[in-house]
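Operator note (shift B, R.M.): manual run for Myosin heavy chain requested after the automated queue skipped it. Running by hand, logging everything below so the morning shift can see what happened. Input copied straight from the record, untouched. If output looks odd, do not overwrite the archive copy; leave it for review.
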Amino acid sequence: MSEIEHTKTRIKTAEIRLVAAKKMKAAARAAEAVALAEIKALSSSENSFATLRRRPEEGVTLTFEEYSSLLSKAQDAQEASKQREVDAMMLVDEADVSKTEILKKVEEATEEVKVSKKALEEALSRVEAANEGKLVVEEALRKWRSENGQRRRSVQNSSKFKNPSSSQHRKDSVLVDVNGLTLVNDELKPVLKTTLSIGQILNKKLLLTEEFENGFRAGKKAGKRTVSLAQMLGKPTGELQSSRKDEKENGLEHHLPTKRKKFGFAKISHLVTQHSKKKKQHTASLRCRSAE
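Run finished. Output pasted below as returned.
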């Protein structure tokens, strides 16, 4: 910007010089005109004096003294006119010289104005190029920021999709029901786990109960005979009755715990109904939450 201001100052100075040169040129022309007018006046006076000298027949009788005085006056006037003519010619020459100098100064001022304008145009073009480069850099920076933000958002979304509840698992405890659903902070969140069928759940419960009962009976009476639910379901009714008679005859009466005796087909149906009720309640709660 300082270069532009300096160029503008130079242009103004050159314009002022040009105006001054034009005024000096006009003054020189005026002086030349005055000198030419004086030359014309002198030449006209000389012509009139010559005409007067050419008319002796019409002359007037004068004395010698009067004639000599008039002659001296005419000579003085002639010399004065010549001097004036020389002075006028000198003025004309000076005017020509000043005119030449003024024209030279005008040309120099014009050339300086052209150079200053060219420098100003170059400075403005550099400023414009700098502004364009700045705009290009800002546009590239905006694109980079937008692309970087989109990349960050995509990475965050992918990480959230891969580990949706990693932080929640670290902070809160996880409860899993029989259908493989996670219960955290009294909210139901599905977990990608294989669901167990009713038969698998019952088999697990039966195996746990049988292991517990086997251990309990082994602690109390090591000689008692155990019959699993699968064996009970696999054998016909006649075989069960015959096995019971054999046990009574052998004096080995089968004593099952209270929980095992009550656990039959009625208990299985009861578990099935409970499981269906829980499943219905779970689906209803999920629908309510999705509706909210």
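Quick read of the result: The chain has two domains: 2-159, 196-291. Strands lie at 175-176, 181-184, 187-190.
Leaving this for review. - R.M.
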